[in-house]
Design goal:
8-stranded mixed β-sheet; binds pyridoxal-5'-phosphate; 16 helices; alpha/beta; 15% strand; Aspartate Aminotransferase, domain 1; Aspartate Aminotransferase, domain 2; kynurenine-oxoglutarate transaminase activity; 494 residues
Length: 494
């Protein structure tokens, strides 16, 4: 494939930074190498010496002085070599990409660790899309992606979805506004990429079938589209996984975004794709240094802290990579799989509780498809034209928070009768209470149903303060914040 058509003018102008090239050479050099080239500070002056992290299984993860120095120091742009290699092995086991054996230099696959699937998505969008481009997304789709795309000034083309995710006929119908040859003309506004969430769509909980993936891949081949496969719920699938787009990718048109956010902790994710498409990540020192620089603001963990640190703090842990890399090596592939089993079991049982509560309270008043992955139930409230007002006024007054469906729509102003309910953190009682409150509000908004509902809640459902039971990391000794990464992440609403 010729990737030059996909990369926008700003990204095409990026050149590899000489300093970053040397950093990569140094990372692969023997310890005997004397380097006066690096602009890295001397870690002996960093006040953090060692850390012991208690894991939930009772074992410990120890960052000795040497590992701590690595954790605090500037590192290779691609990510810690150990972690990168571990992730490549994992990807090869899970996805068996057809091009796995090819060297990156020969156009094969490569992998980069980013500070978020969101981070990787935003950078990819900013590297690939020009203002005015047509971009294909599914409808509904992840609100964070919409937030990243809208400021670029692109035109969002919405593909219809159902309980099996994106509908290939709808994609074909959108693409048929152009001829496949249009892809050869740079001035033509034919879409260059399609963005999709293949498993446990946020917000619908739907997953693509293999047939659909194959049909979508064929359409992508016909119109020369890149497929951006955003798969943070891969490890939260309740049924046997079907092959990913990456597994089907014989051409090199898939950029795959993985995330550990839902299974280890936020802050560690990877992008996999053709080397040319990841070049922007290696290119410009100015552009990149924010990834590994820090303003060294220290957040002291409080004793008996009940709440997990706010997202911007956990996001900013400078060397979460070292912690995650060491944990994965300590666990090995089998330990990781064992952990994933527990995660799947947990979310599946939460999903059952959510669906049972919906059946109990909302049968006849709402419609839903049972989620097959992920952490969300997508409810269509019958007879309610737009849920925004319902959430902002009625639900809030009842101390219940749900996300109105319009947050996931390419056109946010169109009325939407859906709401998204998350089953990841709420207790059984809270889920039950939440659904019954929806019923209550529904009755209020639909005259004629009467209001027989007697229970009312006096307590806000404190979703954010509930402890996440599955994260293996129990005690964080050092939390560093303040780098520019936070500014980037904050720009993007979750
Ligand atoms: C579909 C989708 N993509 C990306 C993300 C962001 O993932 P990360 O935490 O790895 O940035 C989310 C998070 O909720 C998501 O639902």
């Amino acid at each position: 494939m010729n990737y030059s058509r996909f990369i926008n003018a700003v990204s095409a102008a990026r050149k590899p930074s000489p300093i970053r090239v040397l950093t990569a050479i140094l990372a692969k050099s023997p310890p005997s190498m004397i380097s006066l080239a690096s602009g890295a500070p001397n870690p002996k002056l960093f006040p953090f010496a060692e850390a012991t992290i208690k894991l939930r299984d009772g074992s410990k993860l120890i960052l000795d002085e040497e590992r701590m120095n690595v954790a605090l120091q500037y590192g290779a742009t691609q990510g810690q070599a150990d972690l990168v290699n571990w992730l490549k092995d994992l990807q090869n086991i899970l996805h068996k990409p057809p091009s796995a054996g090819m060297k990156p230099e020969a156009g094969g696959l490569d992998l980069i660790v980013t500070t978020g699937s969101q981070d990787g998505l935003s950078k990819s969008f900013e590297s690939l899309i020009h203002a005015g481009d047509n971009v294909v997304v599914e409808c509904p789709t992840y609100a964070g992606t919409l937030s990243a795309l809208r400021p670029i000034g692109c035109n969002l083309l919405a593909v219809a979805t159902d309980h099996n995710g994106m509908i290939p006929d709808s994609l074909e119908e959108i693409m048929s506004r152009w001829k496949p040859e249009d892809a050869k003309h740079s001035e033509c506004r034919i879409p260059k990429l399609v963005y999709t969430i293949p498993n446990g769509v946020n917000p619908t909980g739907a997953s693509l079938t293999l047939d659909r993936k194959q049909a979508i891949y064929k359409i992508a081949q016909k119109y020369d589209l890149l497929i951006m496969e955003d798969d943070p719920y891969y490890f939260l699938q309740f049924n046997k996984p079907v092959p990913s787009f990456l597994s089907l990718d014989t051409d090199g048109r898939v950029l795959r975004f993985d995330s550990f956010s839902k299974v280890l902790s936020s802050g560690g994710r990877s992008i996999q794709g053709r080397e040319e498409l990841l070049q922007w990540h290696y290119a410009d020192d100015e552009y990149l240094t924010y990834e590994h620089s820090s303003d060294d603001e220290i957040v002291e963990p409080k004793e008996d802290e009940e709440e997990p640190p706010p997202p911007e703090v956990s996001e900013a842990i400078e060397r979460l990579e070292v912690m995650v890399g060491d944990l994965l090596h300590q666990w090995g592939m089998d330990g990781f799989k064992e952990h994933i089993k527990q995660v799947v079991h947990f979310y599946q049982s939460r999903k059952d509780i959510m669906v049972n509560a919906a059946k109990k309270w909302l049968s006849g008043l709402a419609e839903w498809d049972e989620p097959v992955a992920g952490m969300f139930l997508w409810l269509k409230l019958k007879g309610i034209n737009d849920t925004k007002k319902l959430i902002e006024e009625k639900a809030l007054a009842k101390e219940v928070l749900l996300v109105p469906g319009c947050a996931f729509m390419p056109d946010p102003d169109a009325p939407c009768s859906y709401v998204r309910a998350s089953y990841s953190l709420a207790s059984d009682e809270q889920i039950d209470q939440l659904q019954s409150t929806v019923l209550h509000i529904h009755h209020q908004l639909r005259p004629g149903f009467g209001d027989s509902f007697a229970r009312s809640s006096s307590r806000m459902i404190k979703i954010i303060s509930v402890k996440v039971p599955l994260m293996p990391v129990n005690t964080l000794v050092i939390l560093a914040t303040g780098d520019l990464r936070v500014a980037i992440d904050e720009r993007i609403q979750r």
